[in-house]
Amino acid sequence: MNDFDRPRFLRVYTGLFFVFMFLPILLVVVFSFNNQRSLQRFTGFSFEWYQRFFENESLTSSLTASLEIATVTMVVGTLLGTLLAFGLVRARTRWAGSANVLMLIPLVTPEIVAGVSALLLFTHVGLRLSLLTIMLAHITFSISYVTVVVRARLASLHPEVEQAAMDLGASRIQTVWLVVLPALWPAILASALLTFALSFDDFVLSFFTTGESPQPLPVRIWSAIRFGVTPTINAIGTLMLTISVLAIGLAILLPRFFGRKESGIGVLMGRESV
């Protein structure tokens, strides 16, 4: 029998899909290096707009604020999400199933609803909007992402491995530290970097929970773009894209150095190692 004849239009459709998805991003990157202010004609290569960005104290302080928010969100969200994953997988109560469903609610809740809810909560408790409120909102939203990845990895580990470690004299804490955590480390690392990328470029939650200066970079871009798009905005977008791509790339590649044979994509998708 002949091999299955794949419809040729699928290749064309796939190519058009990627062009439609990535061409606008490519245009932003290209015009961020334009030596003139024009956003329609590329007349020459220049780093002028990047230089202007780093000379602007307001914009650099926003970049620093975004990096601080993303770092704190990554550390705290990963810690809490990992602990929650342990509780959901190892809990043997009748409420475990309901808890698993509740954990998924933040993933399907519209982000604008989460932003408004966070704003109302902070207002009612008298918490002044600042970088702290942004961090709290981002951490709350990111816990579920970490939990989904780590829980899938933890569920694939056989409980007999932990029982064998305790039979050999290890305590419960030693078993978790020496046996479980090394097996979970690829998933923890991948989910941490994914959380960093999601927090760094988040706009909706940041917009509703931000206070006075310094504002995170996405909110600062929105404030500036109301007066028109400039090549400096393109430079900022390119820098943010670079940081996010690096974080996602590390989330995909680094687990291979800590795991067995699974790729970072497999870890993020919760696949078992082979």
Summarize the helices and strands and which ones pair or pack:
Blueprint: H1 8-31, H2 48-55, H3 57-90, H4 96-108, H5 111-124, H6 131-155, H7 159-167, H8 172-200, H9 204-209, H10 217-225, H11 231-253, H12 255-258, H13 264-268
Helix pairs in contact: 1-11, 2-11, 3-6, 3-8, 4-6, 6-8, 7-8, 8-11
Could you characterize the architecture of this molecule?
The protein starts with 7 loop residues before the first helix and ends in a 6-residue tail after the last helix. The protein is built from 13 helices and no strands. By secondary structure, it is mostly helical. It is globular and about 70 Å long. The chain has helices at 8-31, 48-55, 57-90, 96-108, 111-124, 131-155, 159-167, 172-200, 204-209, 217-225, 231-253, 255-258, 264-268. The model has no long low-confidence stretch (mean pLDDT 82).
Provide a short characterization of the protein structure.
With 274 residues, the protein is mainly alpha-helical.
